[in-house]
Amino acid sequence: MALLPLLCWWVRLRLMKTTIVIPTYNEADNISNLICDLGELNLPDFSILIVDDNSPDGTADIAESMAMEYAAPVHVLRRSGKQGLGTAYKDGFRWALDAGAEAIVQMDADFSHSPSYIPQMLDLLNECDVVVGSRYVKGGKLDERWGFGRYLLSWWANAVYTRLILQLKTLDTTAGFKAWRRETLLGLDLSRIHSNGYDFQVEMAYVTEKLGYQVIEIPIYFEDRRIGQSKLNMSIKIESALRVWDVWWRHRRLTPSQKASL
Ligand SMILES: Nc1nc2c(ncn2[C@@H]2O[C@H](COP(=O)(O)OP(=O)(O)O)[C@@H](O)[C@H]2O)c(=O)[nH]1
Ligand SMILES: [Mg+2]
User: What's the gap in Å between 219 CA and the centre of ligand 2?
Assistant: First the structure.
């Protein structure tokens, strides 16, 4: 009897051709472990797309060599230089859509987003338009090593400041771990999205809700990056905070009738 739910789960996943999009800049120490962990999920029909901005540490070469060595479904989209997280995601999403992906997962390369949540996210994608791995929904958690002050600032910026300005229902407004249905990304129309950097996540969250798409947030444990350095510094944080107003101004009049036709 226990086999039946397992079978249903597998059949539901099986229906979705999935591409996991991972932007990278200097992630040589993380990328091979991440590709291995994603492979071990044994998803029925999936591929991995690394969007690399010519990382000086050779991230793209490592990913490509793994693809050849293990015959893993890994593709590398090489860009000429560091062009920002937002444009990396837009290029990656377009690549995945062109390749016929029905589900598109976005995640960081640094293990802040544990691959173990992906099967649950894909499963829930049968019930909504986008699934968000959330740090601020009930049950979600930030790295235990964070001090109270850092936690408070992050919670305030995500779950209060951005949410209040944009009137969002989503609690984790800057989440970078999501699973999208193909139709949602097509309906959003990526050419509408102007953010090149980290504010990309906020703009996507806002446009998603303004267009009336259904969002489900699942709680995740957000671990600090294991190795390497964050590319998010204080000046980027301040710029992103100010950009929230720009996102609001640009899209404030969007309505569900303005979904792009599929
Ligand atoms: N292709 C590309 N990837 C980037 C860029 N900036 C950051 N990333 C990647 O985006 C993900 C999130 O960046 P990270 O520095 O971990 O940001 P944080 O988690 O917010 O501290 C990681 O996989 C980075 O390697 C960029 O300009 N281009
Ligand atoms: Mg990170």
Answer: 17
